[in-house]
Request: fold
Amino acid sequence: MANNDPTSGAGADAVEATRRNFLYVATGSVAAVGAIATLVPLIAQMNPDASTLAAGGPVDLDVSKIEPGQQVVIRWRQRPIFVFHRTPETLKTLQDPKLTSQLADPDSQQLQQAPYATNWHRSIKPEYGVLVGICTHLGCIPMFYPQPNASSPAPDWLGGYFCPCHGSKYDPAGRVFSGVPAPYNLPVPPYTFVNDTTIRVGENPSGSTFDFGSIRQL
Ligand code: FES
Reply:
């Protein structure tokens, strides 16, 4: 397990800032305000009551309300869970050798996800990413930058997650880049689709016995 208590040192302020904000919706910086206004009620609606959360029970989310390119963040077992509705462009990027050649574990060989998410998109349906939003370096919450950008938050940015604490980079499927402090891909929590548009975080698909406690590093 990583040290998830980054409450001291240079990254502490950034950690606190990201933790305070983690229940808000993040999209590209341009659309962030509108997305928050639209989707915060959704989050409130989908979050279970306190007793369910305390028990670490499953959490349902209606993904049909997430527009392509948007991400919502829900809470499961006191952890932020990123749910990203990927665009066709993002799906193309995930398979682009220009990206995959820069990744430390592009084929998800390390046990950071269940077998049903051990594929190029690290998810059950390619268009929906579901990730534990905790950096595998020292436990900060990575920021969501879905749009490619020449210089921000890092040079030649192709879209994905950037950890503000020590500069680790992850692609839109949570795959970590080579040469950054974080050693592993972002974990994928156990989850399943209970119908076409509702995911249940904390429960495996029928027939899977994946144990979240068996992953290499959270
Ligand atoms: S906690 Fe160090 S790079 Fe994320």
Summary: The pocket of FE2/S2 (inorganic) cluster is lined by residues 135, 137-140, 163, 165-168, 181-182 (CB under 6 Å). The longest helix spans residues 32-46. The radius of gyration is 16 Å. The chain has five helices and nine strands.
